[in-house]
Specification:
Largest sheet: 6 strands, parallel
Order of helices and strands: EHHHHHEHEEEEHEHEEH
Structural class: alpha/beta
CATH architecture of the largest domain: 3-Layer(aba) Sandwich
Strand content: 15-25%
Strand order of the largest sheet: 3-2-1-7-8-9
Low-confidence stretches: none
CATH class of the largest domain: Alpha Beta
Bound molecules: adenosine-5-diphosphoribose
Length: about 230
């Protein structure tokens, strides 16, 4: 393959594992005995808003005690140095890519440090706990919720992501189990448009067979080595 110019990178919970943020489906993936699939739904929010808000309050508070690791920093280094197009798409709702310094970054599943008004669509930077029935500062509706894309909801930025995948020469997936669509299907889209595909993950993901190349190991080791090689 000739040197890639347009790179799309997808990250998942595995890239933040070495920072001390638990993955969803690995050890520590349960929270107060609940599976993530039982908490992160519109139905759960309607039936038990206290539980859902408490879950995200705990995760937002945890961010104060974690730092970007070598993998986040390496991707920020690549972003700063790469002369071609580059898009980092993360499924993560933590702010570790942001704090590492990545700027060509999209959070497709929302962000812990943001609140969403379901009435007017306002998205507001949010640092502290978010009790149910908090009023929207824009329209006054007492229904601010975590700005998280729940199961069954449409991820953010899909048109931009699909356009980038269609132009990609190289698609790299890092630290994601490949269990959740549409992100799990990005490798197939990228391949369809002719991109080379590489997976960097601790274990083979559910979609591992779709990748031309898979490297298994911790992101904190594999990602800096890959970035060094790409930057030559
Ligand atoms: N380095 C690289 N990969 C790792 C590491 C590590 N140190 N530790 C774990 N992994 C891998 C695991 O092998 C697993 O394949 O990261 C993956 C994490 O998978 P999940 O917990 O399923 O997380 P993710 O793929 O991001 O989940 C997707 O599901 O719950 C929803 O919306 C949520 O964005 C999330 C989505």
């Amino acid at each position: 393959m000739t040197a890639p110019r347009n790179i799309v990178i997808l990250t998942g919970a595995g890239i933040s594992a070495e920072s001390g943020v638990a993955t969803f489906r690995g050890p520590g993936g349960l929270w107060e005995g609940h599976r993530v699939e039982d908490v992160c739904t519109p139905q759960a929010l309607a039936q038990d808003p206290e539980l859902v808000h408490r879950f995200y309050d705990a995760r937002r508070a945890q961010l104060a005690g974690v730092e970007p690791n070598a993998a986040h920093l390496a991707l920020a280094r690549l972003d700063a140095a790469w002369p071609g197009n580059l898009l980092l798409v993360t499924q993560n709702v933590d702010d570790l890519h942001d704090r590492a310094g990545s700027s060509r970054l999209l959070h497709m599943h929302g962000e812990l440090k943001s609140a969403l008004c379901p009435a007017c669509g306002n998205r507001i930077a949010w640092e502290d706990a978010l009790p149910p029935e908090t009023e929207c500062p824009n329209c006054g509706t007492p229904a601010l919720r975590p700005d998280i894309v729940f199961f069954g909801e449409m991820p953010y930025h899909m048109a931009t992501i699909e356009a980038a995948l269609a132009q990609a020469d190289l698609f790299v997936s890092i630290g994601t189990s490949g269990a959740v669509y549409p992100a799990a299907g990005f490798v197939q889209t990228a391949r369809h448009y002719g991109a080379a595909t590489l997976e960097l993950n601790l274990d083979p993901s559910e979609g591992s067979l779709w990748f031309e190349e898979s490297r298994m190991g911790p992101a904190g080791t594999l990602v800096p080595a890959w970035v060094d090689a790409v930057l030559g």
